[in-house]
Amino acid sequence: MSVLMEFALEAGLIDHNPVRDVKKIVTRSDGFHTWTVAEVAAYEARHPVGTMARLAMDLFLYTGLRRSDVVRVGPQHIAGDVLSIQPVKTQRSSGVIVTVRILPALAESIAKTTTGDKTLLISGWGKPFAVKGFGNWFRDRCDEAGVPGSAHGLRKAAATRCAENGATANELMAMFGWTTLQEAERYTRAAERKTLGLSASGKLNA
């Protein structure tokens, strides 16, 4: 609204900006919902290994990639049990390349799913997904499983799981393609607080 009023003022449509001194509303949000263990289990129950829907979730959960990169992953990015890809987000900036180990659960999902020649994920027409089209398709698969999940929420779940299992901030940066410690430390601090809280509560019996 402030930008609109400034435009109107410069265009001579009004003689003053009525919202110039209005204080901004400060809001705080954790962003996308992080998938819970129960939600992952519900999705797995609805979409078994061998389905495209299951492979989509497994790629997010076991690589931590963004939606724009998951739709691009193909055989060309895989060598043995290692997946390497340059995220779209870093192609014009840091040039960071993400390299992750393909864990057995993901390897099984890939092996048992009919994938594409250029991309692992393909639409019902056998073509690679467009980013927006994939988002809509994945949302439908989540609805079928009765979970409020999103693709980015799975990325957050992967980061949370790694941090709680002892991953360092630098390890998280390497896996998730972050170039600053701020985002990675948010997960490691949360994991540390959880561990310390559990440790402290155990001392109530002392």
Can you describe this structure?
- The structure is a single chain.
- This protein is mainly alpha-helical and 206 residues long.
- The chain has a single domain (37-205), classed as Intergrase catalytic core (hpI Integrase, Chain A, Orthogonal Bundle).
- It is 50% helix and 5% strand.
- Helix 3 (52-63) runs antiparallel to helix 5.
- The longest helix has 22 residues, at 181-202.
- It starts with a helix and ends with a helix.
- The model has no long low-confidence stretch (mean pLDDT 87).
Unreliable residue stretches:
none
**Given the structure, what is the number of helices?**
9
The main pleated sheet reads as: 3 strands, antiparallel
Work out the count of structural domains: 1
Describe this structure in a few short sentences.
The protein is mainly alpha-helical.
Please tag this protein with its features.
single chain; 206 residues; mainly alpha
Walk me through the topology.
Blueprint: H1 2-10, H2 37-46, H3 52-63, H4 67-70, E1 78-79, E2 82-85, E3 98-101, H5 104-111, H6 131-145, H7 151-164, H8 169-176, H9 181-202
Antiparallel strand pairs: 1-2, 2-3
Helix pairs in contact: 2-6, 3-5, 3-7, 7-9, 8-9
